[in-house]
Amino acid sequence: MTVVSRATAIAHPNIALAKYWGKRADGHNLPAVPSLSVTLAGMATTTEVAFDASLDRDELHLGGAALPPDAEATRRVAGLLDRVRAASGRRERARVVSRNDFPTAAGLASSASAFAALALAASAAAGLPTAPALVSDLARKTSVSAARSAFGGFVELRAGRPGDEALAATPLAPEDHWPLAVVIAVTREGPKDVGSSDGMRHTAMTSPYFPAWVDAAPSLFDAVRAAVLARDLAALGAAAEASALCMHASSIAASPGLLYWTGATVEVIAAVRRLRAQGTPAFFTIDAGPHVKVFTTPEAQAAVGAALLAVPGVLRTITAVPGGGARLAPSSGGA
Ligand code: 2P0
């Protein structure tokens, strides 16, 4: 009988308040800048990993469909599994079955929750330790933002340094530190045109503003971090918006320019500024896509949601609050 070792893990997406954009030229998938994010509740990736000696290659099933062996996602998953095999001495290939309970077109970094869940499930299935810092480092080696989804609440990840081999995110404050609400204004259905990894590589290689972004990012990160610890929404909004706009400015200045926004993206920025001028606490951030994520207070969430839905080009909104880190499913005993 073939012995199958399996485990299932659940992880949540995160939204960066201080953005990661760009990798160090040396080392393995090390971020060039520090980042700080909040992990979300309510939306989850659930991933089962089963090491099975009867398989002759790693398999990835996403949302019920088997991906081809040469798909980019399958190769990234196999790369993470290779690290788990090297660390555990296992040789079997694995079947990975993953699903998101949120629309990937929402512009939430589905790779963050996906690789955090995969790192935890694969470690548990292989009998490796599953301390969050180890899971975070393993996930980071495949997708930097996934390092942050190993933890819940407010999470920071320092920039890589020369010679770094391990680099894990660290928790800054728990999810109940500050009851923020997020309203995501969805401005387009369907996948984005240029993925994050390609977009940041193109920016680093061709944008004259990329070095300026790398210079500016640490002090923006410091301001975001201080505002989170002080629960100062106005200060957080100023620093988080600056981080997002500097990141996008670096991409817009690439050659050819990389513009993730649509007209609706700009209209939502204007709507957030109008809300603020009228006394509603709100600030925006934008990732590698056209959607806008608006942070506000629980009290103002309904008014912010209504205002965003009224913006031409906003298709729908999704609301979320801070949530917990990656965890093993209750039925998942590990190896
Ligand atoms: C972030 N993003 O800090 C930034 C802001 C998108 C914009 O992290 O190449 O999928 O896998 O390390 O983590 C998305 O980039 O890129 C991202 P890789 P990743 O959330």
UniProtKB/TrEMBL annotation:
Instruction: Tell me the InterPro entries matching this sequence.
Output: GHMP_kinase_C_sf, Mev_decarb, Mev_diP_decarb, MVD-like_N, Mvd1_C, Ribosomal_Su5_D2-typ_SF, Ribsml_uS5_D2-typ_fold_subgr
Q: Which GO terms describe its molecular function?
A: diphosphomevalonate decarboxylase activity
Give residue ranges for domain Mvd1 C-terminal: 182-308
Task: Give the top-level enzyme category.
Answer: lyase
Q: Where does the record locate the signal sequence feature?
A: none
- UniProt EC number: 4.1.1.33
Q: Which UniProt keywords apply?
A: ATP-binding, Lipid biosynthesis, Lipid metabolism, Lyase, Nucleotide-binding
Q: Which residues form the Diphosphomevalonate decarboxylase-like N-terminal domain?
A: 11-167
Give the record's family classification: Belongs to the diphosphomevalonate decarboxylase family.
Q: What is this protein called?
A: diphosphomevalonate decarboxylase
Q: What is the lineage of its organism?
A: Bacteria, Pseudomonadati, Myxococcota, Polyangia, Polyangiales
